[in-house]
Write a structure and sequence with these properties.
The protein has 2 domains: 9-174, Aminotransferase class 4, branched-chain amino acid transferase, N-terminal domain (D-amino Acid Aminotransferase, Chain A, domain 1, 2-Layer Sandwich); 183-350, D-amino Acid Aminotransferase, Chain A, domain 2, CATH 3.20.10.10. It is 25% helix and 29% strand. It has helices spanning 19-25, 69-72, 95-108, 116-129, 205-220, 267-278, 290-299, 336-349; strands spanning 34-35, 38-45, 49-57, 75-77, 80-84, 90-93, 141-150, 162-172, 183-188, 225-229, 237-240, 244-249, 254-256, 283-285, 302-309, 313-322, 325-328, 360-362. Strand 5 (80-84) and strand 6 form a beta hairpin. The structure holds pyridoxal-5'-phosphate (PLP) and 2-OXO-4-methylpentanoic acid (COI).
Length: 363
Amino acid sequence: MNADPQLFALEPTATPLPASERQARLVDPGFGRVFTDHMAVARWSDERGWHDARITARTTLTVDPASSVLHYAQEIFEGLKAYRQPDGSAALFRAEQNARRFNRSAQRLAMPELPEELFVESCRALVRADRDWIPESEGGALYLRPFMFASEVFLGVKPSSEYLYMVIASSVGNYFKGGAPAVSLWVSQEYTRAAPGGTGAAKCGGNYAASLLAQSEAIRHGCDQVVFLDAVERRWIEELGGMNVFFVFADGSVSTPPTSGTILAGITRDSILRLLRDEGVAVREEPYAFDQWRDDAQSGRLAESFACGTAAVVTPIGTVNSPEGSFTIGSGGAGPLTGRIKQRLTDIQFGRAPDPHGWRQPL
Ligand code: PLP
Ligand code: COI
């Protein structure tokens, strides 16, 4: 299949939700519960390659109980947003980076790659069809969830010979309820997320399934999110269940854990590194130990910490909790660098500031 954009043509059958009902759903949408009228679909088979690409009415799927994804979890996904621009149009943000990461995940999970331009076009075409679903509210956006799963009906353990690629869209506001000023973290000491040689750098559903028990433990301890340590030494901070993490020091420098194979290479992480370097901030991608984090927070050497990702944007970390006790970072709320970098990033995404790196992609 070549990259003819018509391949993601809009099927004429879709009936949009009446505007009044759509507007009602867009009031305080939260995260991941409000879905749009359409979805993108394409199919892969070993015989035909990619085929049947289209934008169609969003509907339920009929899945055979022996579909291999249900048994062996051969599934990958992405997350990116379409942002409303000051002139009312919509723009994607670095979508080609999501396309590349999708293909790195596909390689790791022994799945077929999707040509980058098809990935990007599927997102563009879906946003064009569902543009009215982008919330008007401050910080609201259309969250796109491209995903691919093994659809061969077969119980043998092997890479599937058939796959379904889809993109669904969700109107979203804040990821954290109430747009919390700062989140609390729980350090998982018993469970790890990913080991060297495993799938930590891939965005596959299995990684998230494996993180849920630790996330439940975090919630049970009254915390918002789990933070994982490395699987070998149980010492180095890796990332949160669905976000990367940054540390801001009192001397003005910033560090973040390196992408050495066990964490997701976040596109927000990469964008923030770029923006900080543009400002002349000293930035290090280096391992940082949990004990050091606690000592630095208590001595005042560490001033701020924040989590970042497409869904979470930039979220200050207020307290860190573990079975051994808790510590507070800075004032326990948003620090100045965290606030500034969030503003700089979102100003570019929402078209309120110049875009020196060409990250914004009008439809
Ligand atoms: N780490 C994990 C485990 C994630 O799920 C995400 C979210 O996609 C991120 C980091 C941040 O990645 P990005 O900034 O590309 O959204
Ligand atoms: C994203 O930020 O896109 C993610 O996939 C993270 C998830 C917690 C929603």
